[in-house]
Amino acid sequence: MKDYTEILRSYNLKATPQRLVIIESIDHYGHINIDKLYEEVKNKFSSISLATIYKNINSMISNTLLLEVKIPNEKSVYEIVKEQHSHLVCKDCGEVIDIKIDTTRIVDSISQDYKFSIDKSDLVFSGSCESCSSK
What we know:
By secondary structure, the chain is of the alpha+beta class. It is built from six helices and six strands; from the N terminus they run H-H-E-H-H-E-E-E-E-H-E-H.
């Protein structure tokens, strides 16, 4: 079992009970949108507000523990920061899958062609997962 208290502390964040449930839920699901996260946290802290959850998420993003993955035409999902990766998103069931692709050549080419210094790139591919495609 992961020591979420230590994980939070290693990112200079206080390990409050609410933060522990938030980080545990995100870790459990891998990728989770705010509605599902609110539902999960509310099960343990019935009086918690959505604003409190957003405040905690923003704090964890600022401290680079969490990453917001922006998905076109959908609500963002949150994940624990990992090595650089991209995402596949099923337009039918909403599943988000991490994929590892080397974007170095693409980034280098765009940087040269447009004389633009790229600090970060987020690629999200949309389509249908294997399960939804076979229905």
